[in-house]
Write a structure and sequence with these properties.
Blueprint lengths: L10 E4 L20 E25 L13 E27 L10 E11 L7 E14 L2 E2 L7 H6 L2 E2 L2 E25 L9 E26 L11 E28 L5
Parallel strand pairs: 1-10
Antiparallel strand pairs: 2-3, 3-4, 3-5, 4-8, 5-8, 6-7, 8-9, 9-10
Length: about 270
């Protein structure tokens, strides 16, 4: 039998352009912080389900917008996963961590990693796995001075302000079929003590199996060029939309897609 293979490797980078100091400005942590960690391991013949939902809103001031106050920053992060493994043997492993503390450039407020393996049990019928995962980050700010938001003196000396912005990014994947071995990794950062670490979001998927696999990224970036604390009216200078989706159907030997979003004046 001739082998049929699909190989999909993609990298998407979206950055806020910097004419003046233009970039997402993370929200600083509240005095009290919270952490949620879960680990899930299931090996089962029959039916297994997993449903996860997270919605996290956070403001640098008070969550009563709109409208934002002159220097307020507000973020909404959401994550969902829905998985059903039916009439087959499935192995499901997942680790998830959410932390509301300030993070530095190589750390994340939310991180999840999962491994899913499934095969149909021919003795009880035609089994099926359906799984989907979606991560979204929506941030907006009315602008602020760099002197109050940057540790790095050179950043504050080069740019005197972080102008208004309104950016939303979504990443995710899905699989529907009779057999699969799949791993995914998703993480994001939007809480930091200062603006130096910037905002970041990543999503990776690697899969092989029989069915239909898909992965996508959607983004809408809007940035300004100027900020005046005495006249905080937003002045839009960039309006960028980006959309990308990859699908493969049949006997999939390799399906891989890596996506990344970073927005900050100081970037590694």
């Amino acid at each position: 039998m001739k082998k049929i293979g699909f190989i999909v490797i993609a990298l998407a980078l979206l950055v806020a352009f910097t004419g003046m100091a233009m970039a997402d400005d993370p929200v600083n942590q509240t005095p009290e912080t919270q952490g949620i960690t879960t680990t899930t391991v299931v090996y089962a013949l029959g039916t297994t389900t997993e449903n996860d939902n997270i919605v996290w809103q956070m403001s640098s001031e008070v969550l009563n917008a709109p409208p934002l106050t002159p220097t307020e920053r507000q973020y909404t992060m959401s994550y969902t996963e829905n998985t059903i493994m039916d009439q087959g043997y499935g192995e499901y492993t997942k680790q998830m961590n959410l932390d509301t503390q300030n993070k530095v450039a190589n750390q994340f407020n939310f991180r999840t990693a999962k491994q899913v393996d499934f095969v149909t049990d021919s003795t009880i019928g035609l089994g099926r796995i359906t799984t989907s995962e979606d991560l979204l980050l929506d941030g907006a700010g009315n602008g602020s001075t760099t002197a109050s938001r940057f540790i790095c003196p050179f950043a504050a000396a080069t740019y005197d302000a972080i102008p208004p912005y309104c950016n939303i990014v979504e990443m995710g994947s899905s699989f529907d079929g009779t057999a699969v071995s799949m791993s995914t990794l998703a993480n994001e950062r939007h809480v930091a003590a200062t603006a130096d670490p910037g905002v970041a979001m990543n999503y990776d998927i690697s899969a092989a199996g029989v069915g239909t696999a898909a992965a996508w990224i959607n983004a809408h970036i809007m940035e300004g060029r100027a900020f005046d604390v005495n006249n905080p009216a937003a002045q839009k200078a960039i309006d960028l939309t980006y959309s990308e989706k990859t699908t493969a159907s049949g006997v999939i030997q390799n399906f891989a897609k890596d996506m990344a979003y970073v927005s900050g004046v100081r970037r590694l």
